[in-house]
Design brief:
The complex is a heterodimer of chains A (about 280) and B (about 350).
Chain A (H helix, E strand, L loop, with lengths): L1 H9 L3 E12 L2 E12 L3 E5 L6 H9 L6 E6 L2 E2 L5 H7 L1 E3 L12 H8 L8 H6 L3 H21 L14 H14 L4 E5 L7 H16 L6 E5 L3 H7 L2 E6 L2 E6 L1 H6 L1 H17 L1
Parallel strand pairs in A: 3-8, 3-9, 6-7, 7-8
Antiparallel strand pairs in A: 1-2, 1-4, 4-5, 9-10
Chain B lengths: L12 H4 L6 H21 L4 H23 L8 H15 L5 H5 L3 H21 L7 H23 L10 E2 L6 E2 L2 E2 L3 H23 L2 H11 L1 H6 L4 H27 L1 E2 L6 H14 L4 H24 L6 H19 L3 H15 L5
Antiparallel strand pairs in B: 1-4, 2-3
Helix pairs in contact in B: 3-8, 3-11, 3-12, 3-13, 4-6, 4-7, 4-11, 6-11, 8-9, 8-11, 9-11, 12-13, 12-14, 12-15, 13-14, 13-15
Classes of the chains: A alpha/beta (about 280), B mainly alpha (about 350).
Bound molecules: adenosine-5'-diphosphate and magnesium ion.
Chain lengths: ~280, ~350
């Protein structure tokens, strides 16, 4: 009970909390007692070498995986048992490291799917279409055009089929789809990976925009390899190494930590032996 | 709605999202309506049976298209839901309805809707495993639907109701909607057109709104769909319901068109043919449902003509199966996107003609 009260007190400030999370795949330990607190309004980055367990961590937050041990709190409520679509309802959205768009659909339809929870018309009014559904669809279209397409500067491709688009634009569309949900918390799993310099700059700007603009004020969990961007954007940085937390602190403290440097040097080795 | 006729621009979102965007397309739809509501019933009466069959196949395939083409749930047991609709409608008609309801023609519409709902719920029942299994395993459970429903439940019990040893019948003067008694071939045909147009419109509307987009999301990428807040299991079951509902209507229509039904009408082969139609017409396309059915009805008709011409007494049934099987193989090999894709290609070609690239 005492612990519960403690959570209530914190929940004014803390949006998401991971508490002592253990995740095993068979005998492989992907996360080894991880704890993390994400405060409202911040950009909280998660870094670590390949295979450190970052994506697993994101999948646990979003509900694709269930940890064997530990708790996930969202606004003070324990959400371990909630399925991903229920968590989306709470205001949690995400993008994926390996782009998970609906390839055969247009850009507009992909973003419309992000709008799913804001559309209320059910199967009956949907099958009649004229009236309620039509009004709602036009309203959704207006939202998408004015808030998403405008923000992400993708006017020219709105009717293009997604799998024909270049990689960088697909990443952008995926961000658009995640934003259409109007989330409070967004998980960005390596949004910059595979982008060229110009695209990285654009994407970094979008992330800052949605985090800072009054219209959005989205709290971000950012998984990223690009240290320059991470140190520039983040309020806090969480460092993960093969399932273990190394540290969680302000960017400048992270840069000064010798363990972090070692973990990243380790990664360089990994790269060189793999390729 | 991704491809506009060349040179069309919109100023309002509502225009951009409308079905029929130019006067030319609207004109085509009017022509189609005139053809199907006037030309066929007045001038092409010799072919009414073929057109009724066309409607029947198209409606049956529409339900399959919804599940396979739009929601990605493989099914090989759809004839079961046709059977449930047909048998429900026949049995419900034998209930002691008050006389006045018969007089005002309210019984049949009511029975039609109840039968469709029963078929829809029956379909949901066999869709429940889709919460856990996909692909091959789901095919097995839908095949179970086929055999449990038709070969066991209906053959062993339902068709024995009332001590009858043979097929159920329905007197055609009972098939009455309001003042309209559906007893002649033309009536059946028009009734079918109405059912088909409504079913098509419902599916088309769903596909361009929230529900249908959720179905397509499940088909294309269920993990991403769920992350966007789609209740995957719930929407799958919706798809099974609507598909079964349309299947029920189809079965009831079949019953009304022949006034007699038997287990033979709904065997496994029929489920396979329905899937074949969407393979030929084009998976995931509403046009494809009609094209596939047209192809099939034409194929059967042509075979009959040929057999008649050479005066063969050979069994047309086997010819039919073989020809249809070959056609499916041919399409899978040479035109895997189906007739609808061909249609779309040639349309695009003419939209840009003469500057076609
Ligand atoms: N579904 C899974 N089944 C088995 N092992 C997994 C699965 N997902 C991730 N892993 C393992 O967990 C570890 C962490 O992976 P991941 O989180 O993808 O790393 P990254 O930090 O690069 O995103 C890896 O060793 C990976 O093999
Ligand atoms: Mg990863």
């Amino acid at each position: 009970m005492v612990e519960q009260n403690e959570h209530d007190k914190k929940s004014g400030d803390i949006l998401l909390e991971l508490e002592d999370i253990y995740m095993y795949f068979g005998k492989v330990c992907a996360l080894n007692g991880i704890s993390m607190k994400v405060r409202k309004g911040e950009i909280h980055s998660v870094i670590g070498p390949n295979g450190a367990g970052k994506t697993v961590m994101m999948n646990i937050i979003n509900g694709i995986y269930r940890p064997q041990k530990g708790s996930i709190y969202y606004k003070g409520e324990r959400i371990n048992k909630l399925k991903p679509h229920k968590r989306a309802r709470l205001g949690l959205s995400r993008t994926f490291q390996k782009i998970e768009l609906f390839g055969g659909m247009t850009v507009l339809d992909n973003i419309r799917l992000g709008r799913h929870l804001h559309l209320k018309s059910g199967i009956i009014s949907g099958s009649i279409y004229i009236g309620k559904t039509q009004r709602e669809e036009i309203e959704a279209r207006r939202f998408i055009e004015e808030e998403i397409i405008d923000l992400l500067e993708i006017e020219s491709i709105r009717k293009k089929t997604v799998h024909m688009l270049p990689y960088g634009l697909q990443k952008r569309v995926e961000l658009g789809r995640a934003l259409a949900l109007e989330p409070e918390l967004i998980i960005l799993d390596e949004p910059l990976a595979g982008l060229n310099l110009e695209e990285v700059e654009d994407m970094a700007r979008f992330i800052l925009d949605i985090n800072e603009e009054k219209r959005w004020k989205v709290t971000c969990i950012l998984v990223e390899h690009d240290m320059g961007v991470v140190m520039d954007l983040s309020d806090r940085v969480f460092v993960l190494n093969f399932g273990n937390m190394i540290m969680d602190g302000a960017p400048k403290d992270v840069q000064a930590n010798p363990d972090v440097v070692k973990a990243y040097l380790g990664e360089e080795d990994l790269y060189s032996t793999r390729r | 709605m991704a491809y506009l006729p060349c040179g069309v621009y919109h100023e309002k979102y509502s225009q951009d999202q409308a079905f029929w965007q130019t006067n030319f397309i609207r004109g085509k739809m009017v022509l189609l309506a005139v053809f199907s509501l006037l030309v066929i019933p007045i001038f092409l009466t010799d072919y009414l049976s073929e057109f009724i069959l066309l409607i029947y196949w198209a409606m049956g395939a529409l339900g399959v298209q919804l599940l396979i083409g739009f929601c990605g749930q493989l099914t090989l047991g759809h004839a079961a839901f046709l059977a449930v609709g047909a048998y429900s409608s026949f049995l419900l008609m034998t209930l002691p309805w008050p006389m006045f309801m018969h007089q005002i023609g309210a019984v049949y519409p009511l029975v039609l809707i109840i039968s469709a709902i029963i078929a829809g719920l029956w379909c949901v029942l066999f869709g429940l495993p889709s919460a856990r299994v996909k692909g091959f395993y789901l095919i097995l459970t839908t095949m179970a639907a086929q055999f449990i429903t038709v070969d066991f439940f209906i053959a062993k019990y339902v068709s024995q109701i009332g001590g009858r040893q043979q097929d159920l019948t329905l007197s055609s003067d009972l098939v009455k909607i309001g003042p309209w008694t559906i007893d002649s071939k033309v009536d059946i045909y028009l009734f079918g057109v109405i059912l088909l147009v409504i079913s098509m419109a419902v599916v088309a509307n769903l596909v361009r709104s929230k529900t249908g987009r959720a179905w397509i999301a499940i088909r294309d990428n269920d993990i991403a769909g769920e992350a966007m807040g789609i209740n995957i299991i719930g929407y799958k079951l919706y798809a099974f319901f609507v598909s079964g509902f349309i299947g029920g209507l189809t079965g009831a229509f079949w019953g009304a068109s022949r006034n007699i039904i038997s287990v033979e009408d709904f065997l496994f082969g029929k489920s396979l043919w329905l899937v074949g139609i969407i393979l030929i017409g084009g998976v995931g396309s509403l046009h494809g449902v009609v094209f596939g059915s047209l192809f099939m009805v034409f194929l059967i008709w042509a075979l009959q003509e040929i057999v008649g011409m050479i005066g063969g007494t050979g069994n047309i049934i086997y010819f039919k199966e073989i020809a249809f099987g070959l056609a499916i193989c041919g399409f899978l090999l040479f035109e895997p996107n189906g007739l609808a894709y061909r249609w779309w290609q040639s349309k695009n070609y003419f939209n840009l003609w003469p500057f076609s690239y």
